[in-house]
Design brief:
The protein has a seven-stranded mixed sheet with strand order 2-1-3-4-6-5-7, with helices on both faces. The protein is an alpha/beta fold. The radius of gyration is 15 Å and the shape is globular. 25% of the residues lie in helices and 19% in strands. The N and C termini lie far apart (38 Å). The protein has a single domain, classed as Rossmann fold, CATH 3.40.50. Helix 1 packs across helix 4 and helix 2 runs parallel beside helix 3. Pfam families: Dam (PF05869). This is DNA N-6-adenine-methyltransferase (Dam). GO terms for molecular function: DNA binding; site-specific DNA-methyltransferase (adenine-specific) activity. One of its GO terms (biological process) is DNA restriction-modification system.
Length: 166
């Protein structure tokens, strides 16, 4: 559990605007949006606030899902990679089994410094206990992550297939 995931605290942590400015894209759909979008900076045309995993996704999606239990991350990332077109934000827990599963499915990954997320009241949260990463699925997302890396947001890594370096 990261510092920003303390028991009793809100599970709502919104992505700050500078992340979207660095990516330089507009999304067709935010698939994990809160009902109250007052402090949401996601540049998207449409938003899903509930039961997103049960609904059809379309176009370029933005996904900053609940960071809860690893089974939750697996469900969200599974649907994200099955959709195959978008950018997802998660903790960079590289030793976690869910992370390794997602790594094998990603086109590229952008590792960022610790992000100070926005709280539901609009104030800036403290630094989390871990860094974050952005996962790309599809060519538009790949280009956006490279654009963000070129602007200094983080470093890009590309998963390779087992045996590809032999």
């Amino acid at each position: 559990m990261g510092a920003y995931e303390a028991a009793g605290e809100s599970e709502e942590w919104y992505t700050p605007p500078y992340i979207f400015e660095a990516l330089g894209v507009r999304f067709d759909l935010d698939v994990a949006c809160p009902v109250d979008r007052t402090h949401i900076a996601v540049p998207a045309n449409s938003f899903i606030s509930d039961r997103s995993l049960e609904k059809q996704w379309s176009g370029l999606v933005w996904m900053n899902p609940p960071f809860g239990h690893q089974a939750t991350k697996r469900k969200w990332l599974g649907k994200f990679f099955d959709h195959g077109n978008g950018i997802a934000l998660t903790p960079d827990r590289t030793s976690a089994p869910w992370f390794r599963e997602a790594w094998r499915r990603a086109d590229i990954v952008l590792f960022t410094p610790k992000i100070k997320f926005v709280r539901p009241d609009g104030s800036l949260g403290l630094s989390p206990g871990t860094g974050t990463c952005l996962w790309a699925a599809g060519p538009v997302a790949i280009k956006a992550l490279h654009h963000a890396a070129d602007g200094g947001l983080g470093i890009v890594a590309k998963p390779i297939s087992p045996g590809a370096d032999q």
